[in-house]
Amino acid sequence: MKKKKGTAAIAAVLLVAVAALMPLDMYISKPGGAYDLTPLVEVQGGDEDDQGTMSLMTIALSKATPLTYVFSNFMDSRKIMKAGQVRQDGETEDEYDIRQEKLMDDSQFNAIYVAYQKAMKPVEVNFEGVLVMRVLDGAAASGVLKPGDIITELDNSRLHSAEEFSDALAGLPDGQEAKLGIRRGGKQLEERVRLAPIPGGDGRLGLGISFAEERSIETEPPVKIHTEDIGGPSAGLMFTLEIMDRLLDEDLTKGYKVGGTGEMNEDGTVGRIGGIDFKIMAADRDGIEIFFAPDDEITDAMRKFNPDIRTNYEEASETAKKIGTDMKVVPVKTVDDALEYLRELKQKP
How far apart are CA 121 and CA 123, in angstroms? Predict the structure, then answer.
């Protein structure tokens, strides 16, 4: 009898462990936190005596297990997402991480560019190469190139744009090898790849990769942004405001805890992001007093695809009302909208 009880207990423990630890091909998202940008942004000689704070908002994303899947069905602060809602079709975990890192890099680039332009400070943009985002299985570059590689040269010629790279590849004779200069992990390497039909394509020859422009930016005064493991593009607006707060001899925060979200585009417009409901929850929990939300345009095509779609601001306002927060949710279409609101704001007592 004791042996049977012991076996049953072990089986129960194993069952609980499987339910708690076995990863499913799904994700659970939930409110993350507010990250004060003061220690994350460094502007040499910048203004640092402001009374308030600027914060970026995050959501937390983790692989679902049977246990967390069940619990999440009963919690408003949890959302179950299929793998296809998070990763692109055929995208690996490593490729997803590279894409998120690239989105964050681009958000920082645009934030710096816009902030320095608005503050009328010197800024210079340099092309570094093309960043390999994905390598298709069975493609010519499979096993040769890796996500995260930066292609800097083609056939001993320095690249100056992604368009130049595409045109040069298309101009190679059939069967010719492409001699690639790449930067990987800080080291400069050389690889040769013979073009082959792109998997799943129309027979066109190529490397079988997806890529994006990799650029660097130089400013005066110098600026550095430290983001650790934060990914995605949604911190762009708040990075822009924090950098401007350092560059300008004024306290844009007026003593308030300011948070928000939104992708920063090079023209100063604020782009739509995902998970704004959870970011409102996180902001309220962490004491944010003013929250900037993208007041994005919803096109007819977007409504046709999703009749229930709302702007980020509409969703943020609805969530704020639902949780009963006193936090002020402010709609913004451009960074100028946010700046105008802050400059008209009275100093906090």
Answer: 6
Residue 342: closest CA among 248, 253, 235:
253
DSSP annotation string for 287-301: T-SEEEEE-PPPPHH
At 68 the pLDDT is 84
Tokens coding 156: 């001993």
CB contact at 8 A, 219 and 123: yes
CA distance 245 to 42: 11
List, in sequence order, the alpha helices (H) in the chain: 2-21, 66-72, 83-86, 93-118, 162-170, 236-247, 276-285, 300-305, 312-323, 335-344
The predicted pLDDT at position 19 comes to 47
- Across the 349 residues of the chain, what is the mean pLDDT of every consecutive 10-residue run? 54 50 79 91 85 91 83 82 76 85 92 96 95 92 94 94 92 84 93 90 86 95 86 91 93 95 96 94 96 94 89 96 97 98 93
Domains of the chain, CATH where assigned? 32-59+94-120+224-344 (3.30.230), 126-216 (2.30.42.10)
Strands (E) in 141-268, as ranges, are 150-154, 157-158, 177-184, 187-194, 196-197, 205-206, 209-219, 223-225, 257-260, 263-264
> Distance between the two ends of the chain, CA-based, in angstroms?
72
* Residue 10, pLDDT score: 56
Radius of gyration of the chain (CA): 24
Cβ neighbour number for residue 128 with a 10 Å cutoff: 14
What's the farthest any 2 CA atoms get from each other in the chain?
A: 82
Q: DSSP letter at 173?
A: P
Known catalytic residues are 234, 279
Residue with tokens 């417009």: 269
What's the pTM? 0.85
